[in-house]
Design brief:
heterodimer; A: 453 residues; alpha+beta; six-stranded mixed β-sheet; B: 270 residues; five-stranded mixed β-sheet
Chain lengths: 453, 270
Amino acid sequence: MIKIDRLFVSIAGAVSLLGAGFLLGQTDIRTDVTSHGGKPALAVIDFRGSGASQSFMAAFNSTLFGDLQSSALFDMRPKSVFPLNNPQRPEDLRPTDGNQGLALPDWAGAPVNASHLVFGYTAEVNGELVLYGNVYDTRHADPGAAKLMYSRYAGTLNEAGAVHLAHQFADDIIKQFGGTGSLLGSRIYFVSDRGSTGGDIWVMDWDGNNQTQLTNQKAITTMPAISPDGSRLAFTSYASGTPKIVMLDTVTKRTVPFYNQEASLNSNVTFTPDGKSIYYSSTAAGGPAQIYFANLNGQGFRRVSHRDAIEVEPKINPQNPSLMLFVSGPGGQQIYQMTTDGVGVEKVTNGEGEASNPSWNQDGKSFLFSWTRGYAKGDWNVFLMDAGTRQYVQLTHSEGKNENPVWAPDGKHLVFASTRSGRSQIYSMLADGSDVKQLTTRGTNKSPVWGVK
Amino acid sequence: MRMSLLRYSKFQALSFVLLLTIFASGCSKKTPIAPPPPAAPVAGPSAPEAVGRPGRPVISEFIAEPSSVERDQSAILRWTVTGSSGVSIDHGVGTVAANGTHRLPPASVTTTYTLTATGPGGDATANATLTVTAPAPPPGPVERVSDGRTLESRVESELKDALFDYDSNNIRADARAALSTDAEALKRIFADFPRAIIIVEGHCDERGSAEYNLGLGDRRASAARDFLSQLGITSDRLKTVSYGKERPNCTEASEACWQQNRRAHFSVGQ
């Protein structure tokens, strides 16, 4: 949250001071998110393992480093400048080591310049993989005063177990440094055609691991939405011939009853911030698709607005549940806002190009969206807009089509679909456009949403 | 009677006198025979026997409700008997109370049930018939072939796509011409395939968002259906579905290809 607020101070400053100088503005933002200033500088020593655990340590070390780096909380110091000796246990530390590495000042000074040292090891204990992890403040020469964290974790003795321990340890370090909304345990739901021509909903860990097929509709299946607590997944299925809403329990992986209005089209579900109801788009009134409210089971529906234009993608403000963004015309698709009573309709995007896929940040102040501004029709890029000032920054730059950006629970990462490598694939990145990671490779993958579990 | 008359000859004279008396008294009447029995009560489909005779039970009602069912449906028997010491119904129903109903098992053939009421002065019986009719036949399968051509091939060869401008559901001049031809073709097709349902599919090119295109495809399908409706094609034979940009006809990134995808297309419904 703090980081995002600062991001916006920076956006506002850059836009107002530099006018059209957008590239420079983006440089400022990126610098702000990833600069050294004020951030803990972490030296993360490669952990070693005793006995059978050593073969899993490469995966462990890359996961630990990657998680800490992805948090955008730390200045990750390069391993190439580390001293010769690396402590593994607190007992290895001594007051001075002549810059050889077994004393904390060896890490605090140049060339490492770390504020904190992350070290430890793993061992096989009774058939389990046990991690002993430490975080010490290098600015204290006395190891006793320098100790910030000492944690012991146990997991299964295989690579998956090692990766899981690394995630847990990284998560605890992030929390120790005030990081909010950890990604640990969060999952990304998306549409993939790798198992079926019409596509089905798949789910994966936030880092791209454990990709599994969740639905088997044997028909076009698309536009997933995940409830705030991750317990319900709604999507659109053509299993009955026309697009209809299906509601799934993510724990049992079974569908739960949902009443679809008599309509040629029911789709585009979004959950309210309290998770107790939904908004969706339906042609039940006979004209263009309009936004409706309903209970989780589809009952108690009511029409929100009465406009002679297609209305899709309702998105409720997490901090002000009576305000929604949605995508509509006339005159080309743009992002609009209105109250949940259907009044106060106002175009939010400025009418340039076409705009779609709004996704509120949890703070309710900014939203991600897709926009063709500055490009040909259909050449979508991911943008971030301040809902109050309407100032925006561009996060992708015409590397293929970039669509359906959605915030991660930590409010710092986002996931989106891009054709930059050919067929559409799922990518994650930090909100400043850095740390881009491709999460899928098989088949065509699109329409991601990021759930807390 | 003849036997008794012959055997008991001393009654012969008495019988003769009685016969004469009857003849004499009936001379003026048109029908010189015994009076008909009282009319049966109208309570049931069959006239209970011997109603009103002293000492015999009275069956005032014995009916099947409904009196006619389709095969494998069930009905009930309903009866009301007075003055009886025992009531039973055949076909496995057994002994029953004087007044009551009995749910019959699902019927397979027409059955006449007989109720027998026993009384001090004799038995009374009544019949109730449950008529079983064959169920209405299911609708036949939709014919898929007429004059050697399938419905699918007719739809594919005779119905032309209506094309649209970008982000528009207006029926252009070329779409107007295509749909007018389609309306005539649809009349011929529906004449040959009276139960056919035709789907009007709405499609979009790949450039708009998937979400918006779902709504736009719906508008295109509806616009084409409404235009056909004005030309006399009843809407209940046409169903609409929007495929947005989920089922492109052409996948190249060119205007020629995008134009092919911005269409209302016809297919055969189930």
